[in-house]
Design goal:
The strands form two sheets. Strands 1-2 form a two-stranded parallel sheet. A two-stranded antiparallel sheet has the order 3-4. 34% of the residues lie in helices and 11% in strands. It has helices at 2-20, 58-62, 89-100, and strands at 23-24, 43-44, 75-78, 83-86. It has one domain. The protein has 107 residues and is an alpha+beta fold. The chain is built from three helices and four strands, in the order H-E-E-H-E-E-H.
């Protein structure tokens, strides 16, 4: 039983450590991901692709660093420049404004 307690304690401490570490999700393709319950407070979302993500709230999004620099509308990956290219930059700007104003998040 002591062995199981040690494992449990290690896992608990590991998760606490992870929560304190910044997670670099910049440029990550998170489209169609189910991020319900995700803690993004230590995440960097610079240019992360969040098109059609599921179960993510404005509060979760805005807890992340550089959330306003993420891509919430359709985009394509450019292999030459290693970056996402907006299909409609104005639509993404509108989505950022909606999130900023706490309007419903439906990409």
């Amino acid at each position: 039983m002591n062995h199981l307690y040690n494992i449990y304690y290690f896992v608990e401490m590991f998760y606490k450590w992870l929560e304190k570490k910044e997670t670099d999700l910049s440029l990550a393709n998170l489209s169609l991901a189910n991020l319900g319950g995700a803690n993004l407070s230590q995440a960097d979302l610079s240019e992360a692709y969040l098109f059609e993500i599921k179960f993510l709230t404005n509060k979760q999004i805005k807890s992340a660093k550089n959330w306003d620099k993420a891509i919430y509308t359709e985009a394509e990956w450019n292999h030459n420049t290693d970056q996402w290219i907006f299909k409609d930059k104005k639509a993404n700007k509108k989505m950022v404004e909606k999130i900023s104003n706490n309007e419903s998040f439906n990409p």
